[in-house]
Amino acid sequence: MFTRAAARSLAAPSSRLFSSSAARLHKVAVLGAGGGIGQPLSLLLKSDPLVTSLSLYDIRGAPGVAADVSHVDTGSEVTGYAADQLDQALEGVKVVVIPAGVPRKPGMSRDDLFNTNASIVRDLAAAVARISPEAHILVISNPVNSTVPIVAGTLEKAGVFDPRRVFGVTTLDVVRARRFLSEAVGTSPKNTGVTVVGGHSGPTIVPLLSQTEWGKQVTGESWKKLVHRIQFGGDEVVKAKDGAGSATLSMAYAGANFTNHLLRGLSGEKGVIAPTFVKNPLYADQGIDFFSSPVELGVNGVEKIHPIGTISADEQALLDACLPELKKNIEKGKAFVA
Ligand code: NAI
To answer: Which residues form the active site (predicted)?
Structure first.
């Protein structure tokens, strides 16, 4: 399902199609492959022609998921690894996607997951540093605003941190923004691009609706409602699942989509741009050195970090509310590693 053209149209409408063959070998590992996100994500990655080999690891159930997914009739090899086989799972991987950890229950914030997920993510990052220090790491586990600095700090301690290779996956915010805006203005989501910047939790999610013709059509109370829905869309799912977890299917879609964008960049395609939460100089002078803004992806990972562009006064107010919260989240992650 992830033909290049289809995937291309999802989040980077301006990017150009790359014509040469995908000669590079892309081994992708999913850590947490047995979970609510991990299973459909593994399936979608099996459908991505840019993935040549899939390595599925979890403390529970990954060999079963691998056996199942391996029957899908695409070319990639799939191997499942049991709890004590993390090192083997990481051998030779180019990209590591991490959805391992606990999800929210009703009434919880993403930050409430910190105590459990911080150590899970740190230990997995330490294993990547040991076995595949040059791998690109895509962090899905929440709270992303803190888990990404934890991964970066862990790699730094191991002496292998490269800011071009660590990404927080904020794609679901973009996916939701496109969908909700297109519902509001009656367009196709495919043609309704929205840039979302900041972080990945409530008020740190800043959609820049004023930057497109469609977004400009939404004003006043409607704008406020739409922004709130984009910022807190995850809560709709948590509430509807009623204790059984948070977004898994739409997240798997978003995670596979971002992975596809990275693989296209790694393959040499030019002009692949997607918002992602990375080590970022834009607000570093305010002590906020991780931030999601549109990032150009290339053969080394992060190729170029784009500024957020012109924003409206209302969006500036959103950004003003985002930054102090984001700073706290980042500092919490850094303190955990220190
Ligand atoms: P889940 O509980 O269904 O699955 C998590 C999986 O991680 C389980 O299979 C579990 O066995 C595994 N796991 C736990 N510790 C592990 C370890 N040390 N090594 C390997 N695997 C381990 O949870 P779900 O719904 O898949 O969510 C996973 C994470 O993704 C949560 O932290 C959730 O908050 C986050 N999430 C992030 C989103 C984003 O936009 N970035 C959106 C939705 C969820």
So the answer is: 200
Pick from 22-36, 57-71, 130-144, 197-211: least confident: 22-36
Structure tokens, 223: 């704008």
153 is in an annotated binding site: no
CATH ID of 23-168, from 3.40.309.10, 3.40.50.720, 3.20.170.30, 3.40.50.300: 3.40.50.720
Q: Give mean pLDDT, residues 49-56.
A: 98
Angle, in degrees to the nearest 10, between helices 249-266 and 4-11:
110
Write down the CATH number for the domain with range 171-337: 3.90.110.10
Q: What is the distance between the alpha carbons of residues 47 and 63, in angstroms, rounded to a whole number?
A: 18
200 carries an active-site annotation: yes
ipTM passes above 0.85: yes
- 113 touches ligand 1 (CB under 6 Å): yes
pLDDT, tens only, 218-272: 999 999 999 999 999 999 999 999 999 999 999 999 999 999 999 999 999 999 9
Determine if ligand 1 sits within 6 Å of the CB of residue 108: no
pTM higher than 0.90 for the full model? yes
